[in-house]
Amino acid sequence: RRSHNMLRALQHSHRVSAVCHRQLSDLSSHYDLAGLSMQKIPPFSIIDTTLREGEQFATTDFTSHDRIYLAKLLDTIGVDYIELVNPFASRQAREDCTSIAKLGLKAKIVAHTRCHMDDVRAAADTGLDGVSMYMATSEALRKHSHGKGVAAVIESAREVISFVKDNGMEVRFSCEDTFRSDPAELMEIYSAIDELGVDRVGLADTVGVATPMQVAQTVTAVRSVIKDTTGIEFHAHDDTGCCIANALVALQAGATHINTCVLGIGERNGITPLGGFLARMYTLDKEAIKDRYDLKLLVHLEKYVSAAAKISIPFNNYVTGKCAFTHKAGVHSKAVMSDPGAYEVINPDDFGVTRQIEIAHRLTGWNALRARAKDLNLDISDDQIKITTKLLKQHADDHKVTTEQLDHVLVTIGRGAPPVGSSDYWARAESETNPDIKEAMLAAHSAIAEVERS
């Protein structure tokens, strides 16, 4: 009977396995998952828009000095393009665009403008390398801006694009609010704009509504109606938390340029953060990203922007957050001390940040305390470390323990305090009149006795 039951169980297991395999194959076929997978990252360019989108963040108020310094720093870190505000917006905007254009940076300097002759003339006058123009294409935004239909949008772009090209500048045309626009109208616009000779078309998730699957489908569709040599720029807002995932999927589906901002600042919840995007790409091809970008500058860049924008760097910020490489649980700490890759997909050294092992708490393990003792050059036996760990865990259940306090205990032990057994603490507890000290003595007796038994 037992053999019969085992046979039935095996048959059932094979049937379940076959069904799961078939369902996964169907899923892959339906969503073309194989087409989105990749061993290495495809060629891409970063268009950092901290000095345009970042200027639109609620508390940002960059000075001209800030803009010039950040442009130099972004260029040094290795971004391919730096996007600035519309030079037609104000006198100061025009002066700053001109100053940055004259810096002689390796990165190309472009301005974000409306699809309007006044804007692109101002951009040409400042000596910029290119223009990133846009027009609203969703029904929700068209009625509040230009109110034009598809044919009128294309016709409006014709003269403006021609002017930019005649002035030897790069040109990108973006459909604002791409993912709330009618798909058929989008393809008609992108196809026609491509025929006008733009360098790139832009897809903008203006309100952060797109899912990764929508991004994959839309980028793939756009790629099918434009020339292979025409770039696809992707701009993702983070209203619903998908901006980095959407940027990656956009690249996998055929995009060539990704918009970023330092710390992700921008309108409302901001856009794809430069640091987070670099971290994501690092996990796909670490050596390529290390060779191409000065990753150790990220810490300083983010600190500067956080100060200029009057914000704090979040504790869980990608790579540079206070807790990004902090380990607390005993199992985690032990593994990371032996092999950091056990719980870290990114090497903090590559980004110029440090790892932190939290040890002064009730979840700690004796391996963490032993490592701390070695850091302090203390010669403490494993038995003593285990006893100290037991006492620490018991005390930390009800009291806050600092690393400084723990270090003091370890140093005291390491200086040669005579070892004692559980019976010594029991004897002291019996004669102790202070109830708090008596409780501590009994706890020490219990901890040491447990170690002695093991």
How would you describe the overall organization of this protein?
By secondary structure, this protein is α/β, with parallel strands linked by helices. It is built from 19 helices and ten strands. The strands form two sheets. The chain has an eight-stranded parallel barrel, surrounded by seven helices. The longest helix has 30 residues, at 2-31.
Low-confidence region ranges: none
How many β strands by DSSP?
A: 10
Give helix and strand order, one letter per element, not per position: HHEHEHEHEHHEHEHEHEHHHEHEHHHHH
Alpha-carbon distance between the termini? Answer: 44 Å
Rg from alpha-carbon coordinates: 30 Å
Name the average pLDDT. Answer: 86
Fraction of residues in helices? 40-55%
Main attributes?
454 residues; 10 strands; alpha/beta; two-stranded parallel ribbon; 8-stranded parallel barrel; 19 helices; 11% strand
Question: Helices and strands in order, then pairings?
Answer:
Layout: H1 2-31, H2 33-36, E1 45-48, H3 64-77, E2 81-84, H4 91-101, E3 108-114, H5 117-125, E4 130-136, H6 139-142, H7 150-166, E5 170-176, H8 183-195, E6 200-205, H9 212-225, E7 231-236, H10 243-253, E8 257-260, H11 274-282, H12 286-292, H13 298-308, E9 326-327, H14 330-338, E10 356-357, H15 366-375, H16 382-396, H17 403-414, H18 422-431, H19 435-453
Parallel strand pairs: 1-2, 1-8, 2-3, 3-4, 4-5, 5-6, 6-7, 7-8, 9-10
Helix pairs in contact: 3-4, 3-13, 5-7, 7-8, 8-9, 9-10, 14-15, 15-16, 16-17, 16-19, 18-19
Summarize the structure.
With 454 residues, the chain is of the alpha/beta class. Helix content is 50%, strand content 11%.
